[in-house]
Design a protein that fits this description.
This protein has 512 residues and is an alpha+beta fold. It has 15 helices and 17 strands. It folds into two domains: 303 residues, Aminopeptidase, CATH 3.40.630.10; 153 residues, Alpha-Beta Plaits (2-Layer Sandwich). The chain is globular and about 80 Å long. Bound molecules: zinc ion.
């Protein structure tokens, strides 16, 4: 009798798992439907002339070291080059195109639309780059903009001059092909995204003074951000385009300790350095709690689940049962681990005065990227418990809370337009692309634009291959010619698609 009941229960249990995997998480058939581009078959080529422009842009050494410590001479040259190179847009279309200088080195292009009832949108990217690191590890000098015919090597290709260049070229093409748009839009090029926010704050301030810039009047803001991944999940062969709908917070804390001095010939242990080292070890070896299921990562997994193969599909469609195992699997790689929790990185340490005196003080700096379900206060408290030593005193150097999540899905016009434009651009020459909402792990300028719109998205239209994530802020940063071409077409079509006066919600999927 018991065994009979057991077998029936087990059978029902397996049925539920399979039902969820194959019925609840059935593939969305429409997702792979090609976009019937009725009004827009235009295509941009990444030709010789464009390559030379991109290379020139990459050759400016617009390095940001820290706040107020940037290569301002090069930033000025870079800004002047852009102004001059795209000057004909201002002269030719002076009736509706204007350029605003912002915060001395940043630029804001304003393209006024014919229909003032349509809410404007803002595209944002940045001109500054991080330092190059050890030059000997670079295959080609990082500011040569060397092209081998397939790849362009330079600091700033992926982050973020690729976006700057493709946005500006798309704008030029759009104006030359279509003239004045219906919808007003802006292109913001900031100069200090890597170290500060003066450029983005300046743009936000300027726009907030316009009649439509207040109270979230922008349709959407699109900033640099999450990217397209290939072969990112086992058994999934479709590329995944991740639109960042939220962004992690950022907090830096300095921990320090002070003790009375002593002679190193009669040492007492532990010293200030020893105590601090112990705390650093605890901070590094104790993970912040997993927030799996409480942020956008759950939507990302749900969106790809229907396209996975058994048994991964079974597991991801039954997170209620396999959630803990999935957490463990995500923790295996730094990239996926960062999706589910606040990360901790000890980045600076100092201590001691001279070689024959016991150290009286020591300090270490820890940088956290805060998951959307955590907060600065919560992490500070977690650290206090982890260190568990009152002699070590924290000082919060910077704290930016994680962003709220922007709306996404079929019913959100601006999300849908970006999603469709991604498919329109990337479906042509590869496997159908899956577009999912996701979490941006780094911090972007979009933090400064929260008052303009609740629809803040972060996306860079480039495909990242296996080791490209290491090249970001690392050595041998590079971009393929094909990616540049796709970027050109993505921004061009994004501008075109946003000019439609009205799109019935139900037709969004096929009418672009
Ligand atoms: Zn960037």
């Amino acid at each position: 009798m018991f065994w009979k009941k057991f077998v029936i229960t087990l059978f029902i249990f397996i049925l539920i798992l399979l039902y969820r995997a194959y019925v609840v998480f059935a593939p969305d058939k429409t997702i792979f439907e090609p976009c019937s581009s009725t009004n827009d078959n235009h295509s941009l080529e990444f030709n010789e002339q464009r390559l030379r422009t991109f290379q020139t842009l990459l050759q400016f050494q617009t390095i940001s070291y820290e706040e107020n410590n940037q290569n301002f001479t090069e930033l000025k040259r870079c800004r002047n080059f852009i102004k001059q190179h795209y000057d004909d847009l201002i002269t030719k279309y002076s009736k509706f195109v204007q350029l605003h200088d912002i915060a001395e080195y940043s630029l804001l292009y304003e393209i006024r639309g014919k229909n003032s009832n349509l809410k404007p949108f803002l595209l944002s990217s940045h001109l500054d780059v991080v330092p190059t690191g050890n030059l000997s590890r670079w295959k080609y000098p990082p500011f040569d903009g060397h092209s081998d015919g397939q790849l362009i090597y330079a600091r700033g290709t992926l982050d973020d001059k690729g976006n700057v260049f493709t946005m500006m070229e798309a704008l030029k093409e759009y104006l030359n092909v279509h003239g004045q748009p219906s919808r007003t839009f802006y292109i913001g090029l900031t100069h200090d995204e890597e170290v500060a926010r003066a450029g983005a704050m300046g743009i936000a301030k300027y726009l907030s003074k316009q009649s439509f810039g207040r109270d979230g009047q922008f349709e959407f803001v699109l900033d640099e951000g999450t990217i397209i991944l290939e072969e990112a999940f086992p058994t999934l062969h479709n590329p995944i385009a991740i639109i960042g709908v939220a962004e992690k917070g950022y907090m830096t804390i300095e921990y320090s300790i002070s003790l009375p001095p002593g002679h190193s010939s009669m040492p007492t242990a532990p010293t200030a350095i020893g105590i601090l080292a112990h705390a650093v070890d605890k901070l590094e070896s104790t993970l912040q709690p997993s927030q799996f299921g409480r942020g956008p990562e759950i939507n990302l997994l749900h969106s790809i689940t229907p396209y996975l193969k058994f048994p991964l599909r079974l597991a991801l469609s039954n997170i209620w049962l396999f959630g803990y195992l999935i957490q463990l699997a995500l923790a295996q790689k730094p990239g996926t681990n960062a999706l589910q929790r606040t990360t901790s990185a000890v980045t600076l340490i100092s201590g001691g005065q001279t070689e024959n005196i016991l150290p009286t003080s020591a300090s270490a700096t820890i940088n956290h990227r805060i998951h959307t379900a955590d907060s600065c206060k919560k992490i500070l408290e977690n650290n206090r418990r982890i260190i568990n030593d009152d002699r070590i005193v924290p000082r919060v150097k910077t704290c930016t809370e994680p962003s709220p999540s922007s709306p996404y899905g079929k019913d959100v016009y601006s999300y849908r337009i970006i999603e469709q434009t991604i498919r329109q651009t990337f479906d042509k020459d590869r496997q159908p692309i899956i577009v999912v909402p996701g979490l941006m792990l780094g911090a972007t300028d979009s933090r400064s634009y929260t008052k303009l719109s609740k629809n803040l998205y972060r996306f860079s239209p480039f495909i990242y291959h296996h080791d490209d994530l290491d090249r970001l802020h690392g050595d041998n940063e590079r971009m393929t010619h094909r990616d540049v071409q796709r970027g050109l077409n993505f921004y061009f079509h994004l501008i075109v698609n946003n000019q439609l006066d009205h799109i019935p919600e139900s037709k969004l999927n096929t009418e672009l």
